[in-house]
Write a structure and sequence with these properties.
Helix 8 crosses helix 10 and helix 37 runs parallel beside helix 39. It is elongated, with a radius of gyration of 45 Å. The relative contact order is 0.04. The protein has 49 helices and eight strands. The chain has 1213 residues and is mainly α. Among the domains are: 237 residues, no CATH class; 276 residues, no CATH class; 101 residues, no CATH class; 113 residues, Methane Monooxygenase Hydroxylase, Chain G, domain 1.
């Protein structure tokens, strides 16, 4: 609330001391883009029980009628008396509110007693004192208007020094009149009749214009002409304030035409005087030149304020004046851009070394790309401090004024039809602002202007889209592109300005009817005359805009050289990333359609069907990104437990499937929080869970579902009644069919919550109306009954005009809730349904001839699967992925395996589905493929304790222990180390109930080994695995260099001993079963024991009973069965006994004799030579241990002799 005359010096040194204010806009304009704080809710609440604090407890503790607050009424009255509130932007459409339960506010009465005018808006009534106005000076400014906050700096403008010193200070309330009048009683000057007050206001304004024009015109008697004088910016600024005040009262069009024409002529001369001068020429011009610039800008503001008002005479719109305004504004905008962005200046004004410090050898054209397109300069150019300090404050003021001018130019577009040359100039200048840093507010205004042009001048849409593509091409190429556009209410989420502009242009292309846009009553909505196909045509216009943009971009991609295609691809990826960021946000419905059109083009000749490999590659990358986002949203929506969506998705009647004693939102049953029942569906809610307040949860409270349902029923009745009264039902069919078409559906209820949210999100440029209309176009296209209920659908856009008292505010739901609703609605769109088509085409690309394309497609499918591994269950996906297991390119085969392998742990059943084809890749010719297959199978075994193919997996893995590649051998041994021989951490040791001393975990691993051997021909591979695990020689060279940890070696050995002991126990258990095929059942156990004994016989010599294994196994030598299985069984047992005998220090004579007798008998009777050879070897070992070598030798000689003699007789015969 600063006083514009507070600085009587007004010197340039004090200019801009207040920094960069946002004088060109109001909070509602800036808030959607900048993270500005919002006012507390009580500052504008409709809550009849207004509170100062957030405490929601009971009682009157925090109400305004508290004594300690009422005691401050004197200070509050004094503050209100000294406060200028004229800048506030007050709504015209004040909503009625019930005052039935409002307690009289004592604080209000106390303030009025102390200051009866405390709540009055400042008026410009004349004071009751004579005021003298100097001839050379304009009257002091009145109360400042909210549409031009530039008056805060009026005393600091460089050209205001003299005038500000001469004029008295302006007052906050009851400012000085513009003429000298003697007033005795202010009440005599205030007409009671509104028409008289209106006439007095206009006369007062005309007097101001007369005084202003008189100061600018000087009669030239010699030439009988009028000369024009330069006016100070402060005088013109005061005039601007008066114009804006009159605009706010909607009286400006009643001012006589002659006065306005004369005013515009004077303003035109003020602008003309400053042509060719720019603020960045401060070093080359005097202060007079700079003052001309400020005066010209204020003149433009005044001229546009007049011309951009509704219902103004057509004689005011002189093309010459408009062109001069545009040209001068463009010149100043370029100067501001150069001042704020040194890189921009280096490109456009490289021959001004005195203002900038830089490398003398720097080429200002060095950043032109190879294809001739100009790129942003990324050089280090430093602005000289001397020059910067002189123009800094002036630049800030000019920048804010230019923002205001651009806003008024947008208003002018909808009032007066400008020439094509003017429009093209505006477009070019607006796009120029978007390539410069540090001027975000100017960029937002320029984007709004472009949207206005796009809406009103449809013939230039193609040109604007072309310029947008050119702008995209000029952006710096980086993965982390500059994202300076803040998304509303989205913390830390920003997108590029070019993306925001594209979305807003598409919103504007929906052709929102002007009559509907400006409708203020329910009846005015019904008077909007639209053809039944109008909304369909609007949807076609939207699609056409999207097609035009993407076609231009893709054409540019195919036309660029190979080295530039990578840059353009990166730019497109940044653009798609931004669109995906805004997808399913309530304010950006265009994002889905823009992406949908892109997908359609990429699936056709511009993408996957293109002959250019780079184009197909780019299409796959972009489609993969989009499909991944669609799948992510689908999964999120499927997992979402939002109460509204659950209630409306339920097939049961509303109110049948909800908790009876808990909040339907949070499902909390705590007694401490009060629950309120909806009177429509009887659901229970916490007030804070629904975004409301406890005071709203009265006996007539309804939840959002019931509220929207009631609202739609009222709209339905309203439209039916109006259509019948006006005979409009025939327009859409019979009245009965109209009522049938208007039945309230569940999807309409969800849609209406979103439309209500948009109605509450009022924006200064009516963008919320464009967004709501855009949604309606999308929904209208997908609804076959829409043409029968056009009127009803249109009234839904502005339901607050028909249903004014809905019992509670629309904005009960939080923004997070609206995002969930938008996400759910998005799942019904054609874009979301296109996921299957995209996935199908990506799978088809897996069969491309080019290995690059196949690898790209596989990577795209991979990121989709990363989002939802359930995609791998799809049969078409399985066939496509398994087909790539056999791809001719090793990289593709490896990538296909990687695709499956990443999700084995989280989805074990998926691994089982792909196991057979993965196991085949263990024999692949590619080393990397074999490694990946082994790792995948290992993960299958470790992630699923009940993996049914565990034994098969072990057989496949152990088959590669003799691989030609040593790294694979190491991997196999390391795999079995992790499966069997590694001591598990954090597992409590447990034992079986049969008295076994072997832990259950070791017994389970032992059984796995035995089951593997049961299906193998021999145990040779297992011997290798056991041997290397006992030595732990498969670790990397770095680990070997440090040395293997002895504790690890001891741990593995201990486990092997336990396994041998467990095998021996299992052999005895099989024997106890009295199975007729005992040897067949026991053979795998004996082979496993044989494997351990081959590596280290000491494993079978327990310290507690060294002869245990010999004593246990020796009885099996008495078997009389003679076949191949038994022969293998006996051979292993004999080998184990033979290996263990030398390690036993003392063996009882009975065991020695019995063992010797069994071996001798087997040598004589067994028909398998392998068994005979094993018996002979074991017998020799036994004789050596027992000291009976001579007798054994004698026995063997006799046996050999008899055998040879028998052989001789057979030969003779």
């Amino acid at each position: 609330m600063s006083n514009p005359a507070a600085n009587p010096g007004g010197s340039s040194s004090g200019f801009g001391s207040q920094g960069v204010g946002l004088s060109n806009t109001i909070h509602s304009e800036v808030a959607p883009y900048l993270p500005l704080p919002s006012l507390p809710v009580f500052c504008g609440a409709y809550d009849p029980e207004l509170r100062l604090f957030d405490d929601r407890g009971g009682g009157d503790l925090w109400y305004l009628n508290r004594n300690e607050i009422v005691a401050q009424s004197a200070r509050i009255a004094s503050m209100l008396g000294d406060t200028d509130v004229s800048y506030l932007h007050l709504r015209n459409d004040v909503r009625p509110m019930s005052l039935d339960n409002v307690v009289p506010l004592e604080l209000h009465d106390q303030i009025l007693r102390r200051n009866p005018e405390a709540y009055e808006h400042p008026t410009h009534a004349l004071e009751n004192k004579p005021v003298h106005v100097e001839p050379s000076n304009l009257v002091p400014p009145k109360v400042q208007n909210g549409n031009d906050q530039q008056s805060r700096q009026s005393s600091s403008t460089p050209n205001d020094t003299d005038s500000s010193m001469r004029k008295p200070k302006g007052k906050r309330k009851g400012s000085v009149a513009p003429v000298s009048v003697e007033v005795s009683d202010p009440s005599e000057l205030e007409p009671s009749d509104p028409s008289e007050l209106q006439d007095a206001t206009i006369r007062n304004f005309c007097d101001i214009l007369e005084e202003f024009c008189g100061k600018a015109e000087v009669a030239n008697d010699e030439r009988d002409e009028v000369d024009w004088l330069a006016l100070p910016a402060s005088d013109i600024r005061f005039l601007v304030n008066e114009i804006m005040l009159l605009r706010g009262k909607k009286l400006l069009h009643l001012v006589p035409l002659e006065a306005l024409v004369r005013l515009l002529q004077i303003l035109d001369h003020q602008i003309h005087r400053a042509e060719g001068i720019s603020i960045d020429q401060l070093d080359h011009s005097g202060s007079d030149a700079v003052s001309y610039v400020f005066s010209a800008l204020e003149s433009i503001h005044a001229a546009l304020a007049v011309m951009a008002h509704n219902s103004m005479p057509k004689q005011l719109y002189k093309e010459e004046l408009i062109e001069r305004i545009l040209e001068f504004s463009k010149h100043q905008i370029l100067g501001i851009l150069s001042a704020y962005d040194p890189a921009f200046r280096a490109l456009h004004k490289p021959n001004e070394p005195e203002a900038y410090e830089g490398d003398e050898n720097e080429d200002p054209e060095a950043d032109y790309c190879r294809s001739g397109k100009r790129r942003r300069v990324q050089k280090s150019v430093k602005l000289k401090k001397s020059a910067y300090n002189k123009v800094n404050s002036a630049m800030n003021t000019i920048l804010q004024k230019l923002c205001t001018i651009i806003g008024l130019l947008k208003d002018l577009l909808s009032i007066e039809r400008l020439s094509d040359s003017c429009i093209l100039q505006l477009v070019k200048t607006s796009f120029t602002t978007l390539v410069v840093d540090n001027v975000q507010l100017l960029q937002l205004k320029a984007m709004s202007l472009l949207c206005g042009i796009f809406l009103s001048y449809t013939q230039h849409r193609s040109y604007i889209v072309d310029e947008l593509v050119q702008l995209l091409w000029k952006l710096p190429v980086s993965k982390r592109a500059l994202r300076s556009y803040h998304l509303p209410d989205e913390d830390q989420k920003q997108i590029q300005m070019v993306t925001a502009l594209l979305i807003q242009l598409v919103h504007s292309s929906a052709n929102l009817p002007e009559a509907l846009r400006h409708a203020t009553t329910g009846h005015s909505i019904l008077e909007v005359s639209l053809d039944a196909t109008y909304i369909s045509k609007c949807h076609e216009a939207i699609t056409e805009t999207c097609c035009l943009f993407w076609t231009r971009v893709l054409q540019r991609f195919t036309a660029v050289k190979a080295q530039d295609s990578a840059e353009l691809k990166l730019l497109m990826e940044n653009l798609v990333t931004d669109l995906l960021t805004t997808l399913n946000l309530p304010e950006y419905p265009a994002s889905a359609l823009i992406l949908e059109v892109l997908c359609v083009l990429l699936l056709q000749n511009a993408g996957l069907k293109s002959k250019d490999v780079s184009a197909r590659s780019m299409a796959i990358d972009l489609l993969g990104m989009i499909a991944t986002s669609l799948k992510h949203d689908s999964v999120s929506c499927r997992q979402e437990k939002f109460w509204i969506l659950q209630a409306l998705d339920s097939e049961d009647d509303v109110g049948c499937s909800f908790p009876k004693d808990a909040c339907c939102v949070c499902l909390d049953r705590r007694v401490g929080k009060a629950l309120f029942m909806c009177q429509g569906c009887n659901r229970l809610f916490h007030s804070d869970c629904t975004g409301g307040r406890e005071c709203e949860a009265n006996q007539n409270w309804h939840c959002q579902i019931c509220l929207c349902k009631k609202q739609l029923m009222v709209l339905q009745s309203f439209c039916n009644m109006q259509c019948k009264d006006n005979g409009r039902a025939n327009r859409y069919g019979s009245a009965k069919s109209f009522e049938t078409a208007n039945m309230v559906t569940k999807i309409e209820i969800i849609q209406q919550t979103l439309l209500n949210f948009l109605q509450d999100s009022v924006s200064a440029d009516d963008m919320h109306q464009f967004i709501g209309w855009f949604y309606m176009c999308l929904w209208y296209k997908d609804d076959s009954k829409s043409e029968q209920r056009l009127t009803y659908d249109i009234t839904r856009l502005k339901s607050n005009l028909v249903v004014r008292d809905s019992g509670t505010s629309h904005s009960m739901l939080t923004r997070d809730s609206m995002k969930k609703i938008t996400l759910a609605l998005g799942q019904n769109s054609s874009f979301a349904r296109g996921f299957d088509k995209i996935l199908h085409m990506l799978l088809a690309s897996l069969r491309e001839n080019s290995p690059v394309i196949r690898a790209k497609a596989l990577r795209a499918v991979s990121i989709i699967v990363e989002t939802d591994p359930e995609v791998l269950r799809d049969k078409s996906v399985q066939l496509a992925v398994e087909g790539r297991f056999c791809d001719s390119a090793i990289s593709v085969r490896e990538a296909a395996l990687e695709l499956v392998g990443r999700h084995i742990a989280s989805h074990p059943d998926v691994g089982l589905q792909y196991f057979e084809k993965v196991a085949e890749r263990i024999k692949d010719t590619g080393v990397s493929v074999r490694k990946r297959a082994i790792k995948i199978i290992r993960d299958m075994c470790t992630s699923n304790a009940n993996f049914t193919q565990f034994t098969t997996a072990c057989i496949e893995i152990i088959s590669r222990v003799s691989d030609d590649e040593s790294s694979i051998q190491d991997l196999v041994c390391k795999t079995f180390f992790e499966l069997w021989f590694q001591e598990p951490s954090g597992v409590q040791t447990t034992f079986s109930g049969d008295g076994s001393s072997v832990p259950l975990e070791v017994a389970k691993k032992t059984e796995q080994i035995v089951e593997m051997l049961r299906r193998m021909a021999n145990n040779h591979l297992l011997v290798t695995v056991v041997k290397r695990n006992l030595a732990l020689d498969f670790f990397p060279q770095s680990a070997k260099a440090v040395g293997i940890n002895p504790m690890s070696l001891a741990s593995v050995r201990k486990r092997c001993e336990l396994m041998c002991k467990c095998i021996l126990e299992r052999i005895l258990q099989v024997e106890e079963m009295n199975n007729t095929e005992e040897e067949v059942q026991t053979l795998p156990y004996v082979l496993a024991l044989h494997s351990f004994c081959v590596v280290d016989p000491t494993l079978c010599v327990p310290s507690s009973d060294p002869s245990q294994f010999v004593v246990t196994l020796q009885p099996y030598l008495k078997t009389q069965v003679d076949n191949r299985v038994v022969a293998q069984f006996l051979e292993s047992i004999i080998f184990i006994i033979d290996s263990v005998l030398p390690l036993i220090r003392k063996l009882t004579s009975s065991i020695v004799e019995e063992l010797e007798q069994d071996l001798k008998q087997m040598i004589g009777r067994h028909s398998f030579l392998t068994v005979v050879h094993a018996c002979i070897k074991c017998l020799c070992t036994l004789s050596k241990v027992s000291g009976k070598g001579a007798s054994v030798i004698e026995f063997l000689i006799q046996v050999f002799f008899r055998r040879l003699d028998a052989q001789t007789i057979e030969n003779k015969q």
